[in-house]
Amino acid sequence: MRTVSNSDLYNEPNNSSLRDDQYWQFITEEMEITAVNYILPAGNPFGRSPLVIDRQIATNNLSTTQTMLVTVSGSTENQSSFDASAGFSTTVSTDFKCGVPGIAEGKVSVSATASTELKWGKVNKTTLQWSKSVPLEVPPGKTY
After folding, report:
1. What is the DSSP string of 124-141?
2. The whole model's pTM is what?
3. What is the DSSP string of the chain?
């Protein structure tokens, strides 16, 4: 039962001095995750296939485990540019009459326009170099 005329709803403790008729408590059950299933063939979070840099085969014909250090390195370069321009023009004009009154009179108009355009820009180049070395252990008689 509502005991206030205000229709707003709030979640406040019942000892609140603002509204003493609105307090809810939500009790949730404890849950336990028992399994997570991944659909690996459908997974491709980036929408593209991985880049294959190199393929190598490591064969160990010896009787002891051999370790080979595999190093992959590369670099990428990105270039972007920004160009901007600003310009303005101004025109000045005037009219005046000239001549001899009663004989010849004329009207002369003179105008001049000046304009300018300023351009500036910047080229940004970013190079990312990366390298990763991973030890590869090949057991005796195995090929990877």
Report:
1. EEEEEEEEEEEEEEE-TT
2. 0.34
3. ---SS--------TT-SS-TT------------------GGG--TTSSPPP-------B--SSS-EEEEEEEEEEEEEEEEEEEEEEEEEEEEEEEEEEETTTEEEEEEEEEEEEEEEEEEEEEEEEEEEEEEEEEEE-TT-B-
pLDDT band, residue 52 (cuts 50/70/90)? confident
Token representation of residue 103: 């004989």
pLDDT at 140: 92
Query: Is residue 14 classed exposed, middle or buried when 0-12, 13-18 and 19+ CB atoms within 10 A define those classes?
Result: exposed
CA 64 to chain centre: 50
List, in order of start, the domains of the chain with CATH numbers.
Answer: 55-143 (2.170.15.10)
Name which of 36, 71, 35 is nearest 56 in CA terms: 71
